[in-house]
């Protein structure tokens, strides 16, 4: 008798990372005072404020030193907003595991934007909240996290 091996998610780790985003840690992220004023309620509307926060730090050129930490934390929060507010059953996977679920993503390569990927077993589709944060930082509000999450939900 053969048993199918269960694919390991990283749901707990990304949920915890999303919670760290709002902890006041002096100097850990640029313009921390703006960030900690945003409600940590996983609402779709909280992403409008995250968009404003990212725009403020883009304008201040405050992204160099803490880029990876910022992108990972905000990406985790965006993904958790999608998970919590969607009727689809999303789970987080690391890049290596996600490639097994959907081999076509190997073309993206392993990078900060693909460090953790949301997958819906129901639809078979993947989405990249961390990569979307990278795009917002690069392009500005045309890559709104609020709009992205609304489409995904």
Main sheet?
3 strands, antiparallel
Shape: globular
Topology, number of strands? 3
Number of separate helices: 7
- Poorly predicted ranges: none
Instruction: Work out the strand percent.
Output: 5-15%
Q: What is the structural class?
A: mainly alpha
Give the neighbour order of strands across the main sheet. Answer: 1-2-3
Helical residues, percent = 40-55%
What's the mean pLDDT score?
Answer: 89
Distance between the termini: 39 Å
Radius of gyration: 16 Å
From N to C, what is the helix and strand string?
Answer: HHHHEHEEHH
Structure description:
There is one protein chain. The chain is globular. The chain has helices spanning 11-20, 32-35, 46-59, 67-85, 95-101, 129-139, 145-152, and strands spanning 90-94, 116-120, 126-127. It has a three-stranded antiparallel sheet with strand order 1-2-3. It is 48% helix and 8% strand. The protein is built from seven helices and three strands. The chain is mainly alpha-helical and 153 residues long. The chain has a domain at 11-86 and 130-152. The mean pLDDT is 89. The chain starts with 10 loop residues before the first helix and ends with a helix. The longest helix is centred in the middle third of the chain and has 19 residues, at 67-85. Helix 4 (67-85) packs parallel to helix 7.
